[in-house]
Design a protein that fits this description.
By secondary structure, the chain is α/β, with parallel strands linked by helices. It contains 11 helices and 9 strands.
Length: 259
């Protein structure tokens, strides 16, 4: 469901409407709009929920740039097309950075943000090089099945859950995400340009076993989001919403005032 050059999206209308303000769900790197469905299925009981494929992912447009300001502008253009004046933004990982970037370009139109396991900083560690290597091997091998792709990726990727996650975007021998551009723009994806202080409610949810949000980033968060609160989900890693969805939903419910 999209117009020319517009992001692909799905809208779910609320069953027991608490607010007409929609929740926008934004996935992370290598994902698509289905990644946060475990949250969307619950939240659509109370709010309209819009799930989005960000640029170069899913079936959204292919573009050469992955700058956060431009990715935030994509979301803003979609809000304009849908005549959404205010929104609550929930983003995981790269999607969390897009959410934070939106506060810089559309401060008055963002009511609250929830950032899942991501800090407003430029990361120095390249965490995805082995993933890029594995994805490129699959492409070069020209295999068509997920089983064949799995066997190739197992040579490089040992972390539980990563291969099944990636394979959600593998269809008929093709990756749904734009692999060459993601690799070319990777420094921008792990990078960050500090945003002006945004004095509205922000919730940062961290997986207790993840090192994406650490004590060293506390001041960066406070400087850019003075009203930020934090919630740590014990026993979960970076994909905290997939590993411990009930705990993540409890935090979001409390933050949004859902009884």
């Amino acid at each position: 469901m999209k117009s020319n050059n517009q992001l692909n999206y799905h809208i779910h209308h609320a069953e027991n409407l608490l607010s007409s303000t929609p929740i926008i769900l934004i996935h992370g790197l290598f994902g698509d709009l289905n990644n946060l469905s475990v949250l969307g299925r619950n939240l659509q009981q109370y709010y309209p929920v819009i799930q989005i494929d960000v640029r170069n992912h899913g079936i959204s447009p292919r573009m050469e740039n992955m700058d956060y300001r431009d990715m935030a502008q994509d979301i803003l253009a979609l809000l304009d097309e849908l005549s959404v004046q205010k929104a609550i933004i929930i983003g995981h990982s790269m999607g969390g950075k897009i959410a934070m970037s939106l506060t810089a370009i559309a401060s008055e139109r963002i009511e609250k943000i929830v950032v899942i396991d991501m800090a407003p900083v430029a990361y120095q560690v390249r965490r995805h090089d082995t993933i890029f290597a594995a994805l490129n091997k699959v492409t070069e091998a020209g295999v068509q099945t997920r089983q064949a792709a799995t066997e190739i990726m197992q040579q490089d990727i040992q972390e539980d859950g990563v291969i099944p996650f990636l394979l959600k975007s593998f269809q008929q021998g093709e990756w749904k995400f734009n692999l060459p551009v993601l690799q070319k723009e990777y420094e921008k994806i792990i990078g960050w340009e500090t945003v002006p202080a945004w004095h509205k409610p922000a919730l940062f949810i961290r997986g207790g076993n993840s090192d994406y949000i650490t004590e060293e980033y506390r001041q960066d968060i406070i400087n850019q989001f003075p009203q930020a609160t934090a919630w740590v989900v014990a026993g979960a890693g970076h994909w905290v919403h997939a590993e411990k969805p009930e705990a993540v939903l409890r935090a979001i419910h409390r933050f949004l005032g859902i009884e």
